[in-house]
Amino acid sequence: MHDDESVLKTPEEPMEERSGVSRRDFLKISTIAAAVPVVSGTKMVLAAGEQVPVHGPGKVPMTFNVNGKTYKASLEPRVTLLDALRDSLDITGAKRVCDKAECGACTVLLDDKPVYACSMLAIEGQGKKITTVEALMENGKLHPIQQAFVDNDASQCGFCTPGFVVACKAMLDKHPNPTPDDLLHELSGNICRCGTYAGIRGAIAQAARKGA
Amino acid sequence: MPDYQWPDPAHRTLIGKRTSRVDSPDKVSGQARYTYDIKRPGMLYGKMVRSPYAHCKVLSIDISAAEKMPGVKAIEIVQKPGATIPWAGDEVVAVAAIDEATAEDAARAIQVKYQKLPHLVSDAEPPAGAGENQGPLSLDDLGDMLENQVPERQIVALIQEYGISFKPTEEDIKEAKDEGVPDSVIEAARTATVHPEAGTKTKSNYVKASVQSQGDVEKAFAEADAVAEGLYGAPVIVHCCMEAHGSTSEWTDPDHLFVHMSTQNVSGIAGQMAEPLKLPAANIRVHQDHVGGGFGSKFSPDRWGIVTAQLSKKADGKPVRMMLERDSELEVAGARPSAYARVKVGAKKDGTLVAWQSHSWGTGGPGGGGMPPIPYCFSIPNQHKEHTAIRNNIGPARAWRAPNHPQACVLTMSALDDLAAKLNMDPYEFFLKNLELTRLSKIYRDEFPLAAEMMGWKEKWHPRGQNISGNVARGVGLSLHTWGGRGHASDCDLSIHPDGSVDIKMGTQDIGTGTRTCIAVVAADALGLQATDIKLYIGDTLYPPSGGSGGSTTPGGVSSSTRRAVVDARDALFARVAPALSVQPDDLEARDGSVRVKSDTNRSLSWKEACSKIGATSITSHGHNDQAAAKNKPDLTNSGVGGVQMAEVAVDTETGIVKVTKMVAVQDCGLVIDPKMAESSVLGALIMGISYSLFEEKIMDPTTGRMLNADMEFYRLAGLNDIPELKVHMMTGPGYDERGVIGLGEPPVISSGAAISNAVANAIGVRVGVIPLTPAKVLAALNQKAGA
Amino acid sequence: MRAFDYVSPTSTRQAANLLSSTWGNTEILAGGTDLLALMKEDVVTPKRLVNIKEIADLRGLKSDSSGLRIGSLTTLAEVAEDAGVRGKFPAFAEAVHEAASPQIRHMATVGGNLCQRPRCWYFRNGLGLLPKDESGKELVEEGDNRYHAILGNDGPARFVSPSTIVPVLIAYGAKVRLEGPKGKRELPLEKFYVIPKTDLEREHDLQPNEIVTEVVIPPAAGWKVAHYEIRQKAAFDWPLAVAAVALKMDGSNVQAARVVLGHVAPTPWPSPQAEAALKGQPANEDSAKKAADAALVNAKPLSQNAYKVQLARVAVKRAILKAAGGAA
Questions:
Q1: What pLDDT is stored for residue B181 in this prediction?
Q2: Residue A94 in contact with residue A85, Cβ under 8 Å?
Q3: Which of A47, A60, A3, A56 is nearest to A27 (CA)?
Q4: Where in chain A is the domain with CATH 3.10.20.30?
Q5: Are residues B512 and B473 in the same domain?
Q6: Is B723 found in the same domain as B654?
Q7: Residue B546 shares a structural domain with residue B644
């Protein structure tokens, strides 16, 4: 049995920008020589003598744990976690702005660590604890960091706010009394165009004092 | 006789107090839904094929592969073969599909062939002698000038001098009236000489505006005791709203369209979509709960908005969402024109300004760039101004927060600051000396000492280049600015219900400026309630119209209409309640959640009890603020604000890196409805000012004509850690309150660039004339100074 | 992004076999912070993503006789927070802690950081790694090159090396280990980077079906190391110049030095000229300045990036003084 390296030749058509490749042709090019499937519905590929499951390019059933609830969706591997949250699960707190890990508006927590959901594939968000801004309220009451944002007017148009709230929470969880150096390192990944930084500083100071 | 006048401090219950933004809880909790978040049943996703070339002709379009793709539901050709494309990123073909990935694949499968044409994307100084004279103005020229807030009389003068290249029809005139084009401009266009042949002539990239002169500038310079010359400027920048432009359109039946749009002009969108879609405006409903920024770029549905509705029609009316990707957003959703000038200014030895001469140029894309209002704020007696507009292919110009003023301010205040240095005068004294040349000298005179105190100007100011320790140079700089801000046309429907609830319906929008809070405070103040007691319905064309959020006209407009509505409603309530307390309605007041007798406050009813006297039918009232000031009796809004800003910087002279270490802003806006919102507006503007002073510029590649930094990696905005201590003081009290409510959104962003630039000049002892003040430019200036 | 299929091998052997032997068909997916952006812009268009995050061997930090072995899947945040790294290689920990943004540090891996593609805006706009227009005109030379190379820029490559942590790793004498179908190999990190001559090549010596498995930092005993970055914004801004310096002192004089520049050339740029200038000298302001001048003596600015020469000089000077002032 030959390994799969020889199957992945240079495609029949050059990757010309102007001429598109139809969906059907594309599937033909990328179909992997399948060995006998181990589980029906899952394709397999042979690599170094072992079977490795292949997902996509078509839709793949996925399961997510978001804000403590389980969600299911059938998505292509190319869908980002951000777009899965927003378009498939209708959890729209995290926003799409730059879509390229440059602005922070899509910040969510992955196993309690702040990440850019736009730069993760949904398929890789499985098996992780995903927390979005929507999780912070409890019984209709704002989380102390959220209340601090309200009290210090740390929102104007509000589009960057969910990302900032999540990033602030992540920082305060790690540094309950953040120093200016902590702010430099832990809040550099979020941008605001309206200019709410002065309010955000006030919100952090308040949340630190009151305990967030 | 209803007393609409703003209450004096003794009778205010909420106006002037610090009230938290009423929609903040929705924003911080992720509950706020923006256009980008709206999911409609069966929604399709739209994508646009955009021209990769800055100037080209469309030769052919082949949509056959895309049409056959499963999941593709509609394709719309936006610009047909034969069309000339004026900038890279311009729309060519649109496609709607069942999900975004399919729409992307389909867009890639559409084949467009182009014929490249020569392009220009530079706004470098025009070659000497280049430029044809203005010539007859086209409709585009007029539109561009209006969008860039070129003063009415300037436009009228140009129309009268050069004529126009099109014949305005009655339709055109009506449309112009609807869009708020000034009557004088419409009249000038109606009676202008028409030169139809001018519309087809190939235009030069360089268009000379007519020379503007007053007094005798040569004599004045000859007699001046000090003359300073310099080259100053501000490049093209973009809005970079966090929420991109876009909309979701669906046809609820073949003749009715429902649009969710990211806009700052809810009430004005339907009228702009009607003609292109051949639909009565009344059949178009526009809805928006929240918008992620506008800054002047979101007044129109834009072509992509119209196309989205057309895609929806082709897809059996199914909702189609098309939001711009970040690169398109920065490429085609608007550019603030650039402005550069070689300026010469002269003054007497006591600092009195006598002469101004400028040769300026700038671009706003294909429409060219008009001359900003220079000299800014100061009516210098002798002036000579020449300007060349550069028509190029960078993309469309749009109003950017305080159009033309930040540029005019940089050009003027930098030149004046250089002149002050030539005279060895503290610029604070120099500017004070010339305040009588401004229109708001009284306001500036109040503001100057406050700003100086907050900054510690007297302690911090040194003559240029004399505060350097090691490789850190420190300096301070100042600037002043002005703006209009009269309230726009606005209508308010207000109801007080028998159960005590109060609601307001207005077709306005809150672009982050606190409009909701402003309305709620004005209403709650008159009723003795909390802002959160008012239920607000805004952002829908089902509600009475209000103007677009532009020109800083919103607070004045919405507060005026709301004030009238709430006073009428309150009077009607008092009429129902008075018998229960055995008094006349005039004897009642509403405070602290109760309705009580003024002369005997123990005789009172709780708000709920009072409202229960209304009867079965709610009290409804309607308030209106008219565009024409004279029609508002009394006039609750006004125009004309002034502000002063100071900046302190620290410059690393080895690297040229500028850090802003403190900024101070003193600003008036008439009666301040909510100081908390007002301060945020100013703080936000200072931060925007730091961004555009140090980091922002739209960078074009000369060879390909494309924008190189259409992303948020290299189109850089200040981060939290770039922002220092910011101090804001709002002018309030006698002399300010009685002027009524004036808008605040734009003025505070005007002076920041000039103040920071002046601070850097003060720190390093040499001028860096063109912002942004990058290390490259600062080092070049330092090297030049060292070599000199 | 274009459609692709997605596989998660559990061993490097499997991974190497799933990767194509030519560029273009497959890509390694680690943190994804660079790859997804490149795919969204259609700069790379793989038909298969090989997710290596299930390969346990690539995780973890271990110490043995060769030094500190950092698994290529270690995230930047894990590196910055590791007490061992902070204790033994503080300049490296500092460089990592300063890199990018916290969100990126939690996602991005050391291996991915080493292999990230250039920021050149012609490249990122899909105009090619060595961009030319149809007439053969070089876009960088003729266009806006304010962020492009001042050294090693004879052409056609004029982008700058993007990693902010690699210069200091080179200053520490780090090695990179790779594995592919032909087996394992190890390179000094500075040899991992190459200047491509055609658009079909990349900026490193990695074969399309090889994976970076770990970075090894030999013990730094006796070396005083510093990392210095010059960037305009306070944070989350690509540097305009980076310098990393390692000094071995003999009394008050420099016995040996390593000076590495970053963000000034298509590869990280060790400077034998600066190292020679420091040897035998005291590590003071004067010799630091001379060494900095020596480091930039061959700089050939393009039309708009002359300022980078000055910034690179300052970065080298300050890095030398920082190293000299720090603890061994």
A1: 84
A2: yes
A3: A56
A4: 60-132
A5: no
A6: yes
A7: no
Of C121, C125, C146, the CB nearest to B776: C146
Place of tokens 């393009």: C302
Chain A positions touching B104 (Cβ under 8 A) are: none
The CATH number of whichever domain residue B276 belongs to comes to 3.90.1170.50
SS3 B565: helix
How many distinct structural domains can be found in chain B?
3
Tallying the residues shown for chain A, one arrives at: 212
User: For the packed helices B183-191 and B170-178, what is the interaxial angle rounded to 10 degrees?
Assistant: 170
Whether residue B585 sits in one domain with residue B538: yes
Among candidate residues B119, B123, B122, B236, the one with its CA nearest the CA of residue B704: B119
A173's enclosing H/E stretch is: helix A161-174
Structure token pair of residue B85: 């494309």
What confidence score (pLDDT) does residue C327 get?
58
CATH 1.10.150.120, chain A: domain bounds = 144-210
B382 in Cβ contact with B159 (< 8 Å): no
CATH number at B740 reads 3.30.365.10
- Condensed to tens digits (0 to 9), the pLDDT of residues C270-299 reads 999 999 999 999 999 999 999 999 999 999
Same domain, residue pair B610 and B660: no
Distance from CA of A34 to the nearest CA of C (A): 13
Domain boundary among B323, B349, B367: B323
What's the predicted TM-score (pTM) here? 0.94
In a shared domain, residues B566 and B429 = no
Q: Is C289 helix (H, G, I), strand (E, B) or coil?
A: helix
Residue where a domain stops, chosen among B631, B652, B673: B631
B293 contacts A193? CB cut-off 8 A: yes
Query: What's the CATH number of domain A60-132, 3.10.20.30, 3.40.1190.20, 3.50.50.60, 1.25.40.10?
Result: 3.10.20.30
Cβ pair B699:C144 closer than 8 A? yes
Which region, left, alpha or beta, applies to residue B223 given φ > 0 means left and ψ of -120 to 50 means alpha? Answer: alpha
Nearest-by-CA chain C residue for B121: C143
Cβ proximity of B105 and C2 under 8 Å:
yes
Specify if B461 maps to a domain. yes
Domain A144-210 has CATH 1.10.150.120: yes
Instruction: Inform me whether the pLDDT recorded for B199 exceeds 90.
Output: no
B447 pLDDT tier (thresholds 50, 70, 90): very high
CA–CA dist C136, C150 (Å, integer): 22
C-chain CB neighbours of A5 within 8 Å are 17, 19-21, 181, 209
Task: Using an 8 Å CB-CB cutoff, list chain A residues near C33.
Answer: 101, 116, 119
* CA-closest candidate to residue C290, choices C257, C326, C267, C265: C257
In a domain, B1, yes or no: no
B154, with CB counted inside 10 A (0-12, 13-18, 19+), is: middle
Determine contact: A185 vs chain C, CB below 8 A.
yes
Query: To probe the interface with B, which of C101, C285, C302, C307 has the most B CB atoms within 10 Å?
Result: C307
* Confidence at residue B210, expressed as pLDDT on a 0 to 100 scale: 81
Give dist(CA B460, CA C263) in Å, integer: 37
- Indicate whether B480 and B601 sit together in one domain: no
CB contact under 8 A, A18 and B713: no
The yes-or-no verdict on residue C65 having pLDDT over 60 is: yes
Residues B419 and B467 reside in one and the same domain: yes
**What b/e readout covers B160-192, taking b as 16+ CB neighbours within 10 angstroms?**
eebbbbbebeeebeeebeeeebbeebbebbeeb
Q: Which residue does chain C place closest to B107, by CA atoms? A: C2
In a domain, B733, yes or no: yes
* pLDDT for the residue B196: 82
C-chain CB neighbours of B701 within 8 Å are 122, 139, 143-144
Residue from B412, B334, B38, B381 nearest B215 by CA: B381
Q: Decide if B382 contacts B108 (C-beta within 8 A).
A: no
Q: Which residue segment(s) compose the domain that B558 sits in? A: 9-16+488-631
